[in-house]
Amino acid sequence: MHSLILSMKNLLSLLILCFCFSAFRAQQTEVRAVKYEELEKKIKEEGDKLLVVNFWSTTCAPCVKELPHFMEVNNKFKDHPQFKMILVSLDRLADKERVIRFIKNKNLTAEVILLDDIKRMNTWIPKFEKNWDGNIPVTIFYKNSKKIYFNDGEMSKEDLEKTINDHLK
């Protein structure tokens, strides 16, 4: 009887350990795919936060090059109650697993979402910025749901920090 109870305790411990591991793993590998309207709603829901929205792709060399700087800056400001960074992947939905691996490999700490709306890009790109030609990377800064700054192309760590400091009051 004693060995049966011991076996059940070991089994229970093993199950709890497996559950914790799978929950931790799921947390790190979840990427939500959204349409333009959902992203627009998310931007509006952030309210009075300074919201940094970076559009990128795993296949875009300048995007990949600037992401470590974005993560350094995100880690510096992430505890500020008026700051949030969102990385919007423009990879195809079929490449979602590659995006998830990229997030883990590059240790991306900001929220990442996948904008699964490529077929309508000529509709939503001008809604974000009329002068955006569709190339990435692009970073848009919002405050009170209003666009306050548009950066077309790569953004240096210094420029990113300066723009945040200028608007984070």
UniProtKB/TrEMBL annotation:
Gene3D superfamilies: Glutaredoxin. SUPFAM superfamilies: Thioredoxin-like (SSF52833). Residues 1-25 form the signal peptide. PROSITE patterns: THIOREDOXIN_1, THIOREDOXIN_2. The keyword Signal applies. InterPro entries: AhpC/TSA (IPR000866), Thioredoxin-like_sf (IPR036249), Thioredoxin_CS (IPR017937), Thioredoxin_domain (IPR013766), Thioredoxin_ResA/DsbE_sf (IPR050553). It comes from the Bacteria. Keywords: Redox-active center, Signal. The keyword Signal applies. Residues 20-169 form the Thioredoxin domain. GO terms for molecular function: antioxidant activity; oxidoreductase activity. This is AhpC/TSA family protein. It comes from Chryseobacterium oranimense.
